Amino acid sequence: MRSSFDFSPYRRSTIGFDRLFEFLESAGREQADNYPPYDIEKLSDDRYRITLAVAGFGENDIDITARQNMLVVTGRKAENRSRDGNFVHVGIATRAFERRFELADFVRVEDARMQDGLLSVELVREIPEAMRPRKIGINGRSPATLESEPAVAEAQPQSETEGQRQAA
User: Which CATH number is associated with domain 35-80+88-132?
Assistant: First the structure.
């Protein structure tokens, strides 16, 4: 038996986590449907792969849709197996399915391939330049000036008479 959690007390004391609580609440309400089975791999810090076992489906039977923060994989196969008694056992599932994956911000689908009954969807997280962390200079100085300032002293050009006095 599944227990139900009430996250409303936590909503009052958090800022910006509304989507997280909505996701947890919806995950608790959804019935567990494990078809088709899938794996999620983390290939690197910014690359992921979702692999679905879709035996019996062809490339034309599967539709992949990427929406904002959502990846939807849908499979529909026209029933073309003969039901006239030729089958002794039918165990390969060809039922229609829809599998949804919640994506983080700035994650996009890069590629999708099908091989040996496995559908692999490659995902990449690309943070826009405006959202990346950057150093801020103080008093209008650029960060490059701040980093190189100790190595290069700001020297004022000396007049020729001062240079000549120091040489003498």
Answer: 2.60.40.790
User: For 35-57, how does the pLDDT look when each residue is reduced to its tens digit (9 = 90+)?
Assistant: 899 999 999 988 999 999 998 89
For the chain, the domains span 1-32, 35-80+88-132
Query: Would you state the structure tokens that stand for residue 117, as one six-digit string?
Result: 């009954």
Q: Residue 122 pairs with which residues in a beta bridge?
A: 49, 111
Range 76-112 burial, b when 16+ CB lie within 10 A, else e: ebeeeeeeeeeeeeeeeebeebebebebeeebeeeeb
Q: Which two tokens stand for residue 64?
A: 């992949």
**pLDDT, tens digit (0-9, with 9 covering 90-100), for 96-148:** 999 999 888 888 999 999 999 999 999 998 888 887 788 888 887 776 544 44
pTM surpassing 0.70? no
